């Protein structure tokens, strides 16, 4: 076991270079309220004289189970006090307690993070990750630009030549114009997935943006998780709206069932895994076990805020007219020709997730280190940049493959566009398995179950997120190309 001293809950250290005879204020860290300090004997309501030192938990490289810092008798403080934790700290198993030890006054304020930063991998690896991702994006952008500016432009010009008698007999993506917007099978399930994916996307974007601004800095422990959970609860409206609007576009009429699935589908699975993991933590006596009061509060947030907001979004989504398609759909489905190996659904889906995963796998290593190897993650600027690159890569890879499939006269693109970029989550799971066996030293059945249980939750969320990005990119692309051709 190793002790990790928590410096950031009330304050870290007083600035030691300011004059002895003057009162001083601690530096302001985004996300933390500044605290003023004075000389001993001159304190008041607005000025403190004692720097409080707190500890949070015990971690081990051989277990994912955190424990309270004073789980051993020799770590107890005679005058124990427990400041209140935020929701993120509770979910991560941090139980803030006073420390029986004193702070090291020889450490200057400017050097307070040195022991953490020295242990972190060098930022050159982060730059290598960015350059690797940019190369992939440039390659895909060149491919998409070639299709848009040359091949697709020539196709549209040829198809729009009314005096070309044999244009209708040529093969290509225009030949499936009467079937390309045919509603997909299991449209309700797809619309629910897209609603949940939209909710995850907005939550992730806002959280990373705030982290880049410094409001969710590592000094404010638990702030990142707290922000994500609160945003998840408050973003039920866009999830309900997107799900209802797309379901109506697919021709669905069971709006009540759609709304029910919108807030039950993902939440039920997440809560099942969550309660199962919490039961294991409770049996093991870990501090990460969620108290009963917190569980009730989370359920109250879900039922009291998220569910009503989802209903509101679904109501406005069904009130809106269905999205108008640029071409009419034929009554009789067109027969799809025999496909080559590379244009069949499964090979295309498997290939579609490789490039997006190639953009994130280096950054993924640092994220898994911060979660399972107890390292501090602080480079949110890099993470936000990789997030943007991931959006571009998922969009371009899906559009590229969608165009190839349409040229092969396969018009089943709805689910395929979602699964193509969503398959990146499968590579994420494979990498997590590799990380478990090659980088970690975890022993014990409980820790193994917890690792893979939390990994499956991450994979599910990432699947919905990437799948939604690919779908909407492809939806825009298909609408765009079929809106500029002349159809008799």
Automatic annotation (TrEMBL):
* InterPro entries recorded: EMP70, MFS_trans_sf
Per UniProt, what is the membrane topology? Multi-pass membrane protein
Compartments, as annotated in UniProt: Membrane
Q: Which UniProt keywords apply?
A: Membrane, Signal, Transmembrane, Transmembrane helix
Q: What Pfam families has UniProt attached to this entry?
A: EMP70
| TM region positions | 7-29, 127-149, 192-216, 222-247, 259-283, 295-318, 349-372, 378-406, 418-437, 449-478
The GO biological-process annotations, alphabetized, read as:
protein localization to membrane
Keyword Transmembrane among UniProt keywords: yes
Coiled coil region boundaries: none
Listed name of the protein: Transmembrane 9 superfamily member
Q: Which organism is it from?
A: Sander lucioperca
């Amino acid at each position: 076991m190793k002790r990790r001293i928590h410096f950031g809950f009330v304050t870290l250290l007083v600035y030691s270079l300011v004059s002895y005879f003057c009162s001083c204020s601690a530096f302001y860290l985004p996300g933390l309220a500044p605290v003023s300090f004075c000389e001993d004997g001159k304190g008041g309501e607005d000025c403190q004289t004692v720097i409080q030192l707190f500890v949070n938990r015990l971690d081990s490289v051989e277990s994912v189970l955190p424990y309270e810092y004073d789980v051993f008798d020799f770590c107890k403080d005679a005058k124990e006090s427990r400041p209140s934790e935020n929701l993120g700290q509770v979910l991560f198993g941090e139980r803030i307690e006073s420390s029986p030890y004193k702070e090291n006054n020889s450490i200057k304020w400017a050097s307070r993070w040195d022991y953490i930063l020295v242990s972190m991998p060098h930022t050159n690896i982060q730059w290598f990750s960015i350059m690797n991702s940019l190369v992939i994006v440039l390659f895909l952008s060149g491919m998409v630009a070639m299709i848009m500016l040359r091949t697709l432009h020539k196709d549209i010009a040829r198809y729009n030549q009314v005096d070309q008698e044999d244009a209708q007999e040529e093969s290509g993506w225009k030949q499936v114009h009467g079937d390309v917007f045919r509603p997909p099978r299991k449209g309700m399930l797809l619309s629910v997935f897209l609603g949940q994916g939209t909710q995850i996307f907005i939550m992730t974007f806002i959280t990373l943006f705030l982290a880049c601004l410094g409001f969710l800095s590592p000094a404010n422990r638990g702030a990142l998780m707290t922000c994500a959970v609160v945003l998840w609860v408050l973003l039920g409206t866009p999830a309900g709206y997107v799900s209802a609007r797309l379901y109506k576009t697919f021709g669905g009429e069971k709006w009540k069932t759609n709304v029910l699935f919108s807030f039950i589908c993902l939440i039920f699975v997440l809560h099942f895994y969550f309660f199962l993991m919490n039961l294991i933590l409770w049996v093991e006596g870990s501090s990460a076990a969620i108290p009963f009061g917190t569980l009730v509060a989370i359920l109250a947030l879900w039922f009291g805020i998220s569910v009503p907001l989802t209903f509101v979004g679904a109501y406005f989504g069904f009130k809106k007219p269905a999205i108008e398609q640029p071409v009419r759909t034929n009554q009789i489905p067109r027969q799809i020709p025999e496909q080559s190996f590379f244009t069949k659904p499964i090979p295309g889906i498997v290939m579609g997730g490789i490039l997006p995963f190639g953009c994130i796998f280096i950054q993924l290593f640092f994220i898994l280190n911060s979660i399972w190897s107890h390292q501090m993650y602080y480079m949110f600027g890099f993470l936000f940049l990789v997030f943007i690159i991931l959006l571009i890569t998922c969009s371009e890879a899906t559009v590229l493959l969608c165009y190839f499939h349409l040229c092969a006269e396969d018009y089943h693109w709805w689910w395929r566009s979602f699964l193509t970029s969503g398959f990146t989550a499968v590579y994420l799971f494979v990498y997590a398995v590799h990380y478990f066996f090659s980088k970690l030293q975890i022993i014990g059945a409980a820790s193994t179950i917890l690792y893979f249980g939390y990994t499956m939750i991450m994979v599910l969320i990432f699947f919905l997120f990437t799948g939604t990005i690919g779908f909407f990119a492809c939806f825009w692309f298909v609408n765009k190309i079929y809106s500029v051709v002349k159809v008799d």
